[in-house]
Structure formats: C-alpha cells, structure tokens
C-alpha cells in the first residue's frame, strides 16, 4: 500500500479551495430530485373499454331479448342455469330479500346500474371465452338478463341510447364512502 | 414435532462428525452437496405451501390461495408464498407487447412501455396486502378447524417498488375536476376498479418489483397498481390502462361483489380501507403442543388506518390481557410482528390477540365485528381470532 506524500495532499487541498464545485460537492444542476424522464408517448385519444352509468364508453349497437335468449342458452346456461337460477351463480331473483336473514344479491335485486352488465359481459364473459361476443350480442345478452329480472319486456331490445336510461330497482340502495 | 426431531438428528450427526470416526457421520457430512443453482428453492424439509381456499364451482382459474402464516416468521412474505386471487387465471404477458395507457380527462393521452416505467424515479416501501375476503370463513356459524394460514392467510407482506402513480397522471395533464381513476387489468377478466383521485395522488404505486425481483405473473407481471392499506381487489394486476374521469365506473367488482350489505338492506360501496386486525400465527390452528412449559406466542398485526401502536395478548379467552412486544418500529400500512412468551401449564387455554393502531382503532371481538354488517356479509371481517389449546395440547379455531 502506498502512502500519499504530504506535499501532494497539500496540493489537493489547495486545488479543492480553488475549484470547489469539482471537489467539495458543490451544485451540479444535472443532479436533482425534481426531474422526471417524461417518456409517455402521446397517442390519439382512445375510447377504451370502460362503460359508466351515464353511457360513456358504450359502443353503437343493439340487441333484442329474444336473440339474447338464444345466446344465453348456448353460451351462458352451463354456469348460470336456466333462467339465471343456478345456485351460487344466480343472475335473477332475490327481489326484496336484501334486508332479510337470507339476502340474495342478483342483477335485479342488487346491481345499481344496467350499464355495468354491458361492461362486465363485454370484458369478462363467458368465462374462458372472454371477449368472444360481438357488440350486438353483448347488448342481446344484457337485454335477456334484464328480462329475467322483469326489468325488460320479452319483446324489448337495448342499445347504447336506451341502456343508460334503465333505472335498476336497487339504485338507491348504496352508501358511497367516496364520491 | 417433525421439525424438532429433524433438528435433533442433525445435532446428533454434527456431534458424531466431530467426536467419532467419519463413517458414523450423516451423509451430508461425507460428500459434496448440490452445486449452486440459478434460482433457489427452499429446503424440501421445510414443506412450505399455500393452501387453496374455496374454488369457484364453475371456474377453476377464478380462485385464491393463502399464505401459510403458521410456517413463516418476520413480516415479509416470500414471493412464492404471497397470497393469490385471480378472476380468470394468471396471464403470461410479454412485457415487450404490454403498454400502459393513460386516457380520459387528460390533456395528453399517453402510452408507457415497461422499459419507459423502469426509467422513472422509483419508490420502495414495505406494505401489507389483504383481500377484503380474508378470514371470511370465521363469519360462518360454526368454527372450522383449520390452520392460521388457511383461515387468515389472504394477507401478505412485501417490499414493493414502483413508479408513483401521480407522476404519470401529472405527465398526462389530468383534469383537476376529475375525481376518479379507473384501472383496468390485461387478464382475461380485464378486471376494473375505480380509484378515488385523492388516494391516487397520495401513495399509490405502479409496482414493478416485489421483494427485490420483478413481480411474479401471479401478482401482475409486468406491472400492477398497488394501493397501500386498501382492499386487495383495487390493486389491479396486469395493469394496462388508467382512465381519468369525473365519476366512478361502477364496475361489477365494486358494485355486485366488493360491497358490504348492512342489516337494513342498504350497502356500503367503495369501502376501500382495510381494518385494524391481528392474528396469532403460533401456537395456532391444527398445531399440537407436546410438552408443558414456555412457548412464544407470536403473530402479525396490521391496519389500513396507519401503523400498529400496540398488540395485547390474552391466554384466558379475553379475561386478562398483556402487552406483546412489537418487533422493531411498526411501519404504517405494513405487517407488524408481535411476540410474548407464555407458560402453558397443561390446562385448557384460549389464546387471543387484539391490535390497536395509531389512530386509536381497536380490533373488535368476533361478535361486534359481525354486528357491523348483514349476517350474510363476509368482507372486511376483522374480529379477534381465538385459538383453544386443549389439555392434550391440540390447538383449534374456536368462537369465544
């Protein structure tokens, strides 16, 4: 191990006095905590997949209860049962049960907004075949599930204009802890 | 106890290796062991595994698995044992094909690649993550004889590293009137949740690393939202988009599922903060004490309200309480380990722990935790866990 001699140490101290920014930790404007790389690439606005109760995000389209019934019976019935009555996976029933000792939370008895049906079917149903339904098919299955809950008549249909206007029975049944 | 007998064997072997000729030594002292490996694994003798909780009747990949709390110590859950909850399985996402889009009420719609995010100033913090359904089986009418992890292991603790969410929202120029950010995952379920802007601008991360390594696919690789102290479902995994808007989306997760029914038939929505809670992890369910004498009672405490201030332990079903020692300084929104030695005299005993956080929230009894909601409700249950030790030393879950 070499020992630096006294005169070179002295030279270093003198140099540091002359050029403080290099040797005594002066400011370097390139180093600082308030800098961000700003790497986000600007793209054209996107519609996205999020459907909100005011209907924002809903694509143009239409589906009837009767088309929905046919689709339901081939694509949905295995898990949700005839008329949406499969125990543990119910889509319909339970009206008025929420304050009872055996509440049943279904689309009709519980869900606050009909737009959520479109959103959820379009993104997540059928299980293991997600996003395989067309826009009109999603509207049709939405219409049929609303029919199963006596919210739509059998001859009805829904589309992007009508779905947000449907008032669900339990819409007022929630206390929102953030708004 | 299996592990103890192994230790005894190892001790005997080590002694033999020193004091008697080599041929009497254990195998592992007489030839080279395994060579180094690329990615390590635990001892086969440790027998660590997650327990599957109830699966979905029609959807095998829509289930959960819990951390084996009874086999772990300290406050960090190993990545391989962090609890899991998926709604349509675990996607294998190529980060080169994954983008995070920030859109909606912003002045610039922006897209970020995985590499882009790695270049931002990252923050690192230890937090707990708890599923709001954790301990739901303790809301059932009869107490189930299960382990601590099986009952209460939908909670884990980890060190999370990621990009503060507010950097990305500010870069996109979010509308100051916007109140919500809607997060969407890139899994088959494309799970969505609405995050209040006041939380989004606070301490939320777009997490990229967990306990030092890139987050695992089961935890959202290549990136997940991480919302400290809030119900796990809102820490959206496989995060692919953030939509800024004035209202919540009222997605199926936050309306149909993660809402809490009250006795009058109304329901609480956006009940995001997790409650103050603790559980004794040893001695705990399905263990057997095979001698009288001193044991260490040890467990975990946490609160979505802040840091743990105290944990009290009872060995007589709540008639008397003693302060446990908290390991190091409790961190806000993180697991805290507590310990207290206990002398078991061989009589029946009921062990309980009660956590108190720095906001003064006190963990309730099972009865008062249940009283908060409708009888059918099972999210956000934080009642005191009771473990009964029988005169034979058998430990089981009881309602006390």
What would you note in describing this structure?
The complex is a heterodimer of chains A (179) and B (400). Chain A has 179 residues and is mainly alpha-helical. Chain A has 6 helices and 4 strands. Chain A has a two-stranded antiparallel sheet with strand order 2-3. The N and C termini of chain A lie far apart (69 Å). The mean pLDDT of chain A is 90. By secondary structure, chain B is of the alpha+beta class. Chain B has helices at 2-19, 114-118, 148-152, 165-172, 197-200, 252-257, 366-371, and strands at residues 51-52, 64-66, 84-85, 99-104, 110-113, 123-130, 155-164, 180-185, 192-196, 205-210, 213-214, 224-226, 239-245, 260-261, 267-269, 277-282, 293-302, 308-314, 322-323, 325-326, 336-344, 349-357, 386-389, 395-398. The interface between A and B is large, with 53 and 62 residues.
Low-pLDDT parts of chain A are none
The tally of strands of chain A reads: 4
Helix content of chain A: 25-40%
- What name does CATH use for the topology of the largest domain in chain B? Sulfite Oxidase, Chain A, domain 2
Number of domains of chain B: 3
Layout of helices and strands:
The complex is a heterodimer of chains A (179) and B (400).
Chain A: H1 6-18, H2 20-23, E1 41-42, E2 62-64, H3 65-75, H4 77-80, H5 115-124, H6 135-148, E3 157-159, E4 174-176
Antiparallel strand pairs in A: 2-3
Chain B: H1 2-19, E1 51-52, E2 64-66, E3 84-85, E4 99-104, E5 110-113, H2 114-118, E6 123-130, H3 148-152, E7 155-164, H4 165-172, E8 180-185, E9 192-196, H5 197-200, E10 205-210, E11 213-214, E12 224-226, E13 239-245, H6 252-257, E14 260-261, E15 267-269, E16 277-282, E17 293-302, E18 308-314, E19 322-323, E20 325-326, E21 336-344, E22 349-357, H7 366-371, E23 386-389, E24 395-398
Parallel strand pairs in B: 4-13
Antiparallel strand pairs in B: 1-2, 2-3, 4-5, 6-7, 7-10, 8-9, 8-13, 10-11, 10-12, 14-15, 16-17, 17-21, 18-19, 18-22, 20-21, 22-23, 23-24
